Amino acid sequence: MHSDYMAVLISNWSSVQSLPENYVFPPERRPGAEEIQASKDIPIINLEGINGSERSEIIQHIIKASQDFGLFQVINHGVSRELTDQTMRIFQEFFMLPAEFKSKFYSNDLNSSCRLYTSTLNYENETIHYWRDNLTHRCHPLEDHIDHWPESPPGYRIIVGKYSTEVRKFLLTMLELICEGIGIKTGYFEGELSKTQLVSVNHHIPCPDPSLTLGMPEHCDPNLISMLQQADVCGLQALKDGQWIGIEPLANAFVVIPGLQLRVISNGKLASAVHRVVTHLEKSRTTIGTFLTPSNDIMIRPVDGVLTSQEPMYRGYTYNEFFSAFIGNNCEAERALQCFKLSTMH
Ligand code: OGA
Ligand code: NI
What we know:
Elements lengths: L2 H4 L37 E3 L8 H14 L3 E4 L5 H16 L2 H4 L11 E5 L14 E6 L3 H4 L10 H27 L13 E9 L11 E4 L5 E6 L5 E5 L2 E4 L7 E5 L1 H6 L9 E3 L7 E9 L5 E2 L16 E2 H10 L4 H6 L8
Parallel strand pairs: 1-2
Antiparallel strand pairs: 2-10, 3-4, 4-5, 5-12, 6-11, 7-10, 7-12, 8-9, 8-11, 13-14
This protein binds N-oxalylglycine and nickel (II) ion (NI).
């Protein structure tokens, strides 16, 4: 039953000479032929001195980057190069495994515990597809989920388990620094607000014509916070002042994106970057995303600490409610947020 489904995964295509028609976007949605250089303006946060005298300066840098770009890179993040390299290799090898093995995980069901799919979960109903395969599964608490993970390539569960634990610590540290920076009480994001952890790995094979295709649509992450570990291949772009800018794949850096929930909780103080992925002519590209999201039933609202001189811009809602509005509005962030906006005129 899975055999024709498996034909749709681009990682199962052995050679692609020309671009299939159902991957060609209409002219107004194409990224275009003009090459976008990686920008030197994207903030790079160096966490090396975070426990010393530079702490408050580094925190202010994080807050400014979140306000101005809604995205930044972090170096000296504390996760070892050995572990990030091993994990990248495991995922790259996963996508190269035989179609028959991967077919066990193929699913377009959002609730499936470990799902491998191509383009978007809406593959069946969309007319044009994104040049992307994706593997997504939950990671926290580890013992609740690890039995659903792939067992190949060898070491998958051990290495991805270790990685998940380490990047969770890193993301919780980032959230603590953000609390410190904007006056939210310590530990605010611990527990239910950051409970769900997903790993979401994108894989794109070389594309015969990157000017006509997209690896991922322009979007904002609906999460609390996201991080990306890029392999050494360009593709991620963020929208800044109406221009697309390339996010350089820096060695041993994590890209951090405050999600839409951070935007709401900070009452609009922090931004969440609009970003997309373009494809590469010659190279395969694999990116490991890790997302923290609130539990479904937890209330989300602008937090007291940021409201001293401001009226709340959003009403309280559950993450479940938000996510339905997000999906219902075609994953368009502004339209989804509109459902929860309060009028601030009193
Ligand atoms: C995402 C995302 C970017 C990338 O998964 O939400 O934006 O570079 N990924 O793969
Ligand atoms: Ni994203």
